[in-house]
Amino acid sequence: MTHSRARLPVPRDRFVPSVVWLENPAGDGFTPVSRTDDEAGWRALVEADEPIVTQVDDGRAPPNGVGLRPSSSCSQPSLVAAMLEELDVRAGHRVLEIGTGTGWNAALLTERVGPRGRVVSVEVDSEVADRARIRLLRAGYSPLVVTGDGLAGHPPAAPYDRVVCTASVRRIPRAWIAQTRPGGKIVTPWGTDYGDDALTRWEVHEDGSASGRCGTDLAFMRLRDQRRDFLEPSEDEIEAADSTVTRRGGRELFEMISFAHASFTIGLRVPNCYVTVEDLDADHRNVELHDARSTSWARVELVRGLHPWTVRQLGPRRLWNEVDTAHRWWLSAGKPTPQQYELTVSPDGTHAVRLDTPTGPHRWSVAA
Length: 368
Ligand SMILES: C[S@@+](CC[C@H](N)C(=O)[O-])C[C@H]1O[C@@H](n2cnc3c(N)ncnc32)[C@H](O)[C@@H]1O
What we know:
Elements: E1 19-23, E2 30-34, H1 39-47, E3 52-56, E4 70-74, H2 77-87, E5 94-98, H3 104-113, E6 118-123, H4 126-138, E7 144-147, E8 160-165, H5 174-178, E9 180-190, E10 197-204, E11 210-218, H6 235-240, E12 242-246, H7 250-257, H8 263-269, E13 274-281, E14 284-291, E15 296-303, E16 306-314, H9 319-332, E17 342-345, E18 351-357, E19 360-365
Helix pairs in contact: 8-9
The chain binds S-adenosylmethionine.
S-adenosylmethionine binds next to β4, α3 and β6.
């Protein structure tokens, strides 16, 4: 996804740590880049309109110096600008941020709210939070940085005019809604387990509910306890899996994994299913579906020039059949885009969607 380049009033080099992590060209891990050893390389990363990974594997020393999973980052500048615009922060606002990370966005929020406003930022990782506090102070900003689980918000400073989460969530926690004043807004990347997340903006209502709409797609790391998990069955397990074929073609498979097409709808209709795509070479691609909770897994093996494609399925769920059915539903509903859905969270925390189609409205709860 691309966002317009916007000028942000706080330079990010004051917040990016001297050791950052760069993805290996093969996509199999992250290796460190140190400012001390490679000032030009570090600066090129800081000046690019790209996210910078600032911690891997929750800060545990990576084996062989290679990190596997990014766990904290300094977000892409144009995306930060887009989120701030969506949040519509004004002078004097009280703002809660979840995911302090480097502290850069907390500094930008502090600039926006001015001396009459207040910014509270919650970070789950104590080392990340401590470093952010130091950088913020050095740069002349003093938001309150709280070490803790952002799912609980920060009740002592509530109510907030704005809540922004700089990591993706599957559920909008009731605490965030309870701590936002009626008419206030929550902006967060939100999505199901399935595909890309959408930038969503929610308005909080008097009765403790919230309603929202989707914007564009974005790739953000998940809050720690809402991460997605994938399965890696052994060769023997794959060999023993149910094997069928599908006559679905490349166009339909593309639609199933593409946010602008069916992936958002499929995620709303197929709970607890995560899709991954692996390009083995120019002619072979595997689309895999994972439900780590029920240990169900499926793979469609796309081979150029060899159709129909083999489908293998393991575990109690038949994930491919579920995704295939959801894709057919998307076609029958007139190919709705993510932006057509109206999103709601009821006071009891139920997440639901409503879609108006020419044949009438469809409304259903999104599985917890
Ligand atoms: C993309 S980074 C945030 C970027 C940050 N706003 C900045 O300006 O650099 C996401 C952050 O969320 C934090 N995080 C993950 N789960 C969390 C949780 N449950 N509560 C609070 N912070 C969390 C991560 O440790 C990470 O630092």
